[in-house]
Design a protein that fits this description.
Layout lengths: L3 E5 L4 H12 L3 E6 L7 H12 L4 E5 L5 H11 L3 E4 L7 H5 L1 H21 L4 E7 L23 H20 L3 E6 L2 E2 L8 H10 L4 E4 L5 E2 L2 E2 H12 L23 E6 L5 E2 H12 L5 E4 L14 H7 L7 H15 L10
Helix pairs in contact: 1-2, 1-8, 3-5, 5-6, 7-9, 9-11
Length: 344
């Protein structure tokens, strides 16, 4: 028999793919989501409709800020494991509505921690982000680097999650694992992400906004690789590091049952090449509106995933050429777009 696993943010991009993976490998999954309108709700409903067709899946519309409803769910379901993916994501909107990020990402996460403590969850795995590296410039980004200089409220809330998790791991011996995702893309992706925005604009003969003359670099990570990493780590329960020392504290581990991992494709790809691959898949050139880099953005990301490899024997490896092709195929099918002829 499989385990019973709660996935928060189940109607979200990564949550949707993770639920499918966990069901395929024989687990029982309960998903929750508040179905907010941060981006088009119809896409979330489409994902959810697919999940609801599958056995061993239950869905509840719950907001993480509703502690009473969350506690009642934990009491009824008696989960073995929890994966917290529910959050306000993305940097740009956090400049406009920081309160939403604090309410969801901090208060909501506190409620998850309290429920996990109360109902003795075997392992809490939660989403962090590569954005926590902030002003860091040493590449590749390592979980063993200090990350005390976030440059957005979004990043600050995710850094807060890591700190809160450590406190609960220490105080209540809850095993926690935080996952720093690097620029996730793929089918059913978020409409506010570059791949979705660029594809939509190019097909509509509209210009795309390209920052820093396309010289920005990102560690683009295909969603299936993200999900493979999560699914392996759920059952690799964190333990205290016996070699941890307060004289030289390692940010990625602890004396408490607490760990951090990067999940990224461990290569940095220039935005200009990323756009070129999209153009080739669509058989159409982009009109480019060049803009200077914004103060909330970083010039490059690049993940060191050695710890992930050592822990579960896996590192993301999907080439962006293959990943973008899969996204374009999905996009054209989902939005019923015809006459797309890729450049061979």
């Amino acid at each position: 028999m499989g385990n019973k696993i709660l996935v928060t943010g189940a109607a979200g991009f990564i949550g949707f793919h993770l639920v499918q993976k966990l069901l395929r490998i024989g687990h029982e999954v309960v998903g929750i989501d508040n179905l907010n309108d941060y981006y088009e709700v119809s896409l979330k409903e489409s994902r959810l409709a697919i999940l609801k067709k599958q056995q061993q899946f239950e869905f509840y519309k719950i907001d993480l800020r509703d502690k009473e409803a969350l506690m009642e769910l934990f009491k009824q379901q008696q989960f073995d494991y929890v994966v917290n993916l529910a959050a306000y994501a993305g940097v740009k909107y956090s400049l406009i509505n920081p309160q939403a990020y604090v309410d969801s990402n901090v208060t909501g996460f506190l409620n998850i921690l309290d429920a996990s403590k109360e109902f003795k969850i075997k392992h809490l795995v939660y989403a962090s982000t590569s954005s926590v590296y902030g002003a860091n410039t040493k590449m590749p980004f390592s979980v063993h680097h200090n990350v005390d200089h976030p440059i957005s409220i979004y990043a600050a809330t995710k850094k807060a999650n890591e700190l809160m998790a450590h406190a609960y791991s220490n105080l209540h011996q809850i095993p926690t694992t935080g996952l720093r995702f690097f620029t996730v893309y793929g089918p059913y992706g978020r409409p506010d992400m570059a791949l979705f925005l660029f594809t939509k604009a190019i097909l509509a003969d509209e210009p795309i906004i390209v920052y820093n003359e396309g010289k920005m670099k990102r560690d683009f990570t295909y969603v299936d690789d993200i999900v493979e990493g999560i699914s392996r780590l759920i059952f690799d329960v964190s333990e205290g590091n016996p070699n941890w020392s307060g004289d030289q504290p390692d940010p990625a581990t602890s004396f408490a049952p607490y760990r951090l991992f990067n999940i990224g494709n461990h290569q940095s790809v220039e935005l200009s090449y990323f756009i070129e691959v999209i153009e080739n898949c669509l058989g159409k050139k982009a009109q480019k509106n060049y803009q200077p880099i914004e103060g909330w953005d970083v010039p490059a990301t690049y993940a060191d995933v050695q710890d992930l490899q050592d822990a579960v024997g896996f590192a993301p490896n999907t080439p962006i050429e293959k990943g973008i092709e899969q996204f374009i195929k999905w996009y054209c099918d989902y939005y019923k777009i015809k006459n797309v002829v890729p450049v061979s």
